[in-house]
Each structure stands twice: as structure tokens, then as C-alpha cells.
TrEMBL record:
<dbReference type="InterPro" id="IPR012318">
    <property type="entry name" value="HTH_CRP"/>
</dbReference>
<protein>
    <recommendedName>
        <fullName>Crp/Fnr family transcriptional regulator</fullName>
    </recommendedName>
</protein>
<keyword id="KW-0804">Transcription</keyword>
<dbReference type="InterPro" id="IPR014710">
    <property type="entry name" value="RmlC-like_jellyroll"/>
</dbReference>
<dbReference type="GO" id="GO:0003677">
    <property type="term" value="F:DNA binding"/>
</dbReference>
<dbReference type="Pfam" id="PF13545">
    <property type="entry name" value="HTH_Crp_2"/>
</dbReference>
<keyword id="KW-0805">Transcription regulation</keyword>
<dbReference type="Pfam" id="PF00027">
    <property type="entry name" value="cNMP_binding"/>
</dbReference>
<dbReference type="InterPro" id="IPR018490">
    <property type="entry name" value="cNMP-bd_dom_sf"/>
</dbReference>
<feature type="domain" description="HTH crp-type">
    <location>
        <begin position="139"/>
        <end position="212"/>
    </location>
</feature>
<dbReference type="InterPro" id="IPR036390">
    <property type="entry name" value="WH_DNA-bd_sf"/>
</dbReference>
<dbReference type="InterPro" id="IPR000595">
    <property type="entry name" value="cNMP-bd_dom"/>
</dbReference>
<feature type="domain" description="Cyclic nucleotide-binding">
    <location>
        <begin position="5"/>
        <end position="109"/>
    </location>
</feature>
<keyword id="KW-0238">DNA-binding</keyword>
<dbReference type="GO" id="GO:0006355">
    <property type="term" value="P:regulation of DNA-templated transcription"/>
</dbReference>
<dbReference type="InterPro" id="IPR036388">
    <property type="entry name" value="WH-like_DNA-bd_sf"/>
</dbReference>
Amino acid sequence: MSIFIEDDISDLYLKMLNDKGIKIIFNKNDEIISQGKFVDNLYLIEDGYVKLSMISDVGKMHIIGFCGMLSWFGENFYFNNGGKSNFFVQAFSEVKCLVFRHEMVRSFMANYEISLSIYKSLIKKNVLVEDKIKNLSFFDTRQRISWVLKCLIDRFGIQEKEGILINFPITRQDLADLSSSSIEAVDVFIRKAKNNGMIDRKDGFILIKNRNLIQFY
């Protein structure tokens, strides 16, 4: 299980698509797609990360995961010939994208590898949602926060003398949203872990000083 979707497509096919899309740069926190709104573009990330979220019926925002370099989003456009988005998509960093409209998409969808990569990307997003539901159903708050930290270590962990540095700009609120916990619960988790010498901050990033912190209980 992971919270990151990356490398849906190879550099080779990115080069093929370069002259077919419109290059757009989104700034951090820009809203790209609103949940429930009509989607008529297909996006391919060249650099940066977007945050995928879903808003519950009671208005609570749940971060499902992140899409990174060479991953697609806005697949509703391809599979439904336009349709409402299941996700709220927001730029988590500066994001460089190739954006494809209807007429552009027709020019490359006959390519089997490209079409397959888009289909697989949609499946990956469905898996993110399933993992979210499993975590809520079977894990307590501590386990969910630990699982998020483990995903971050697996993708961005750098071994240093003091421990493992998570080289990704995650905030307390992000941890709360990703683990479907309250920010108060995250604060309690971090405070206890810090008092036990298991976690710290270094240059604004999370430093895991003891891997026992991310074990499931």
C-alpha cells in the first residue's frame, strides 16, 4: 500500500506527447479540479505533486494520496467522454503539466501503451480509495498515522546519522488529513513520540529516530 502514484508512463512516451499538449504551470495550493465538477481535460504531470482529496457528505476533507511525476489525472474525461470528477485536485507544490483537450486526445489514444497507462492510473486511484477505507475500518488512530509515516519513509526516506529524514514537506494538518485523524490526535502522537526519542524535526522535515514508531500495533 502507498499514498503516491507516479511513473504511469515512460519518458519515451512523454517525448511523444510533448508537442500534443499545452504546457501549464500551477502554483502551490492552486485548485485544479473541483470534486463533482465537470472535467474536460486530461493532465499529465511533468514535475511536482498534486494532492487528491475527497469531501465526505458531512463536508470533511480526506486526502486520498498524491500524484507525482509522469502520472495522469482527470481520467474521467477519457473514460466517460467528459464527466464529473470524483476527486478534488490541488497543487501540493509548483506543478508542471501537459494538458490535453478533446481534439488533442484523439490524436494519441490509438496508441496502446498510452491508453493502457491511463487505465492503470485510474485503477491506482481506486486502490488508494480502497486503502483509505481499509485503514478507517481496521486501524486505530496511532496505526493510521504510523502507516502514513511508513509510506513517506518508503518514498522519501533518507538515511542519516540521527535517523531517517522524510524529505517531503508534510505538515501536521497533512498528516491528520492523510490518516483521517484530528490534528489534536496527530499532536498527541508526535508529542509522545518526541518525548520517547522516536521523532524530531530537522530543517523543517520529519526525522524518524526509531523505526519502531512506524510499526503497526
